[in-house]
Design goal:
The protein is α/β, with parallel strands linked by helices. The chain has 9 helices and 8 strands. The strands form 2 sheets. The chain has a 5-stranded mixed beta sheet with strand order 4-5-6-7-8. Strands 1-2-3 form a 3-stranded parallel beta sheet, covered by helices on one side. Helix 3 (84-110) runs antiparallel to helix 7, helix 4 packs across helix 5 (131-140) and helix 5 packs across helix 6. The model has no long low-confidence stretch (mean pLDDT 96). The chain binds adenosine monophosphate and manganese (II) ion (3 copies).
Length: 273
């Protein structure tokens, strides 16, 4: 069974419509899929009823939080999409996302980049604005060569466009997910550039706040990392999740279903559905 429990559609910063994402995942042999867009569940509304999706869909979301002045992502799986506490939380995150977009635009304007708010709003369309939309705009106007350079120069951790104060705290976000009957999973723990002791402190706070799982596998990754993360979740008595963090079909490192299997010595999150 292939379970891809972390993917993005064009309801956030992914490129495929929810229906196209499901078709691609089913074609790749994915049995269980969650669409986990950044701070939105709109994909599930857009979808409507699909006669035969060819896989099992688990309702999900990826929520942005700040913890110790870092931006940390928490995936909520098997959530009740109608839970009022979760819906109120999502609304608050979306308001901050728009405020943040205006702040980032103002900061870039000070660097002689013509106020880009309107342009990123157009690029985002119906989706909430994310830093990838700013990155695409900076590429479009020739400020940088590619999206990667845009993050390196303007948008990545510690750069001018990295505005994080305003996201809900990790404790609040995990509270919303739990209120909605979901499982809170720490997304891509290797992407935070944490030392091992910092990562342990994060896992401790995550667990204290009611978090249940950790992405032991996120996209293609080295066996050594899988082993390290499996050891950590077992030490903390947490569950293990898997996903691709798929955004774009051209990215060979994160294709729907394209990642190694979980090691046998961990307890998977799906034991809890
Ligand atoms: P935001 O949700 O607006 O904070 O933007 C975060 C998103 O930006 C992530 O989910 C990734 O899709 C993307 N991202 C973050 N860092 C990079 C990077 N270095 N290069 C390309 N995309 C990135
Ligand atoms: Mn993203
Ligand atoms: Mn993320
Ligand atoms: Mn993601």
């Amino acid at each position: 069974m292939i379970r891809d429990l972390h993917t993005h559609s064009n309801a956030s910063d992914g490129f495929l419509s929810p229906a196209a994402l499901i078709a691609l995942a089913a074609g790749n042999g994915v049995d269980v899929l969650s669409i986990t867009d950044h701070d939105t569940i709109d994909a599930y509304e857009t979808l409507g009823v699909i006669d035969d999706p060819g896989l099992t869909l688990i309702p999900g979301i990826e929520l942005s939080t700040s913890w110790q002045r870092r931006s940390i992502h928490i995936v909520g799986l098997n959530i009740d999409l109608k839970n009022p506490e979760l819906l109120a939380g999502i609304k608050r995150q979306q308001q901050f996302r728009d405020e943040r977009a205006r702040t980032i635009a103002a900061k870039l304007t000070r660097l002689n980049i013509d106020n880009p708010y309107a342009a990123v709003k157009t690029l985002a369309g119906d989706a909430n604005i994310g830093r990838p939309h700013f990155a695409r705009h900076l590429v479009n106007i020739g400020k940088v060569r590619d999206v990667k350079s845009a993050f390196k120069k303007y948008l990545g951790t510690g750069k001018i466009g990295d505005v994080i104060q305003g996201w809900a705290s990790m404790t609040e976000v995990i509270g919303w997910i739990n209120a909605a009957g979901g499982i809170a999973v720490l997304a891509h723990p290797a992407k935070y550039k944490c030392t091992t002791s910092k990562l342990k402190a994060l896992l401790e706070d995550f667990k204290d706040a009611g978090g249940l799982g950790v992405e032991v596998v996120c996209g293609r990754q080295e066996p050594a990392l899988t082993k390290q993360l499996a050891g950590l979740v077992n030490d903390f008595a947490l569950l293990a999740s898997t996903g691709s963090d798929f955004h774009h079909p051209d990215n060979k490192w994160s294709r729907p279903g394209g990642f190694p299997a979980l090691p046998d010595n961990v307890t998977p999150v799906w034991d809890r559905w």
